[in-house]
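As a warm-up, study this chain.
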Amino acid sequence: MVAFTIVLAILVYKYITVFIEVIAAATCSPLAFTLPALFHYKLIRKSKLNLFIVISTILLTIFMVTTSIIALIKDITESE
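Now compare it with the structure written out below.
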């Protein structure tokens, strides 16, 4: 695991800011918005508002990850 992390850090060193954007887009939104609303929906109340929050944040997460990957690809192709 340590070796993989070192190799990955060396490979993406030039694009670290965009790479961090991809990681943040894939992890922060679900942790901050999707999972709490989903847990509340499952455990306490089956509210349509919680379900709407879950579905909309999943769609937003997909959009943010796609946008970040496109930016990463654009940075890689422009530097070559």
